[in-house]
């Protein structure tokens, strides 16, 4: 009962043998991940008014 996350989400606990290969394929297809941009619709709307 101490690690019930592994019962619900086994991919969190069991390492994937092909995980690095899958990541390389994803990066080759989509490129490097970009930074995260946080936007607020209210602020953008107010900025558009002025």
Task: Provide an overview of this structure.
This protein has 50 residues and is mainly α. The protein has one domain (5-49). It is built from 3 helices and no strands.
Walk me through the topology.
Layout: H1 5-8, H2 19-30, H3 41-49
Q: In sequence order, what are the helices and strands, one letter per element?
A: HHH
Q: Give a short account of the largest sheet.
A: none
N/C terminus separation? 57 Å
What amount of the residues lies in strands?
Answer: under 5%
User: What is the overall silhouette?
Assistant: flat
Helicity level: 40-55%
Instruction: Tell how many strands the DSSP assignment holds.
Output: 0
Strand-pairing-aware structural class: mainly alpha
Low-confidence stretches: none
How many structural domains?
1
Mean pLDDT: 75
Number of distinct helices:
3
Indicate the radius of gyration in whole angstroms. Answer: 20 Å
List keywords for this structure.
flat; mainly alpha; 50 residues
Quick synopsis:
With 50 residues, the chain is mainly α.
